[in-house]
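chain below, 196 aa
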Amino acid sequence: MKKTIETFITKAKSKIVSEKGELGDSVITIVAIFLGAVLMFVFPLMSLSERTDDISQLAVQNATDEFVDKVRTTGKITLDEYERYLQTIAATGNSFEAEIIVYQLDENPGVKVTQAEMTKIGENVYYNKYTSQVEEELNKTGRMKLKEGDRIAVTVNNTNKTIAQLLRNFFYQVTGNDSHQIAASKSAIVTVNGSN
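prediction:
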């Protein structure tokens, strides 16, 4: 009887060990399938979305460069050009916040200073017009005339989360709402007086 019990216990132990081995193999198989799926689908998706953001970045930077260069060489901002610029950057499929600052050279800088000259360094006085003021003037008159020596600066940042940002935040636990993936900026000095 004792041998029968010992035989039964050894057979039960070997059966438990073999079941645990099969269970361990199943878990390893599931983990391997999961890792394979991640490697096959998620990382290529991350790479593709990063590439999409790079293309959007390039398109926004080029549109910003063209807009500022056109203002610099024509000496004016027109409502049509501004709206076309906003449509061009929106065509990337992202939403953006565009900020424009126009530094206008004071017409009469020598009122308080007797030796003031426009060509001397440090003698020029600028006043600023910001996005809301520029848009208000564009909506009223359809254009904003600038003078030679005025400066313009345009900064654009995306306000939505791109797929690349969402995936990066999920996998790398990057946090923060102030981060933007797509941004462009350009500034220039106006080289001509604006005409009608």
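Residues 2-74 form the longest helix (73 residues). The CA atoms of residues 56 and 92 lie 6 Å apart.
thats it, cya
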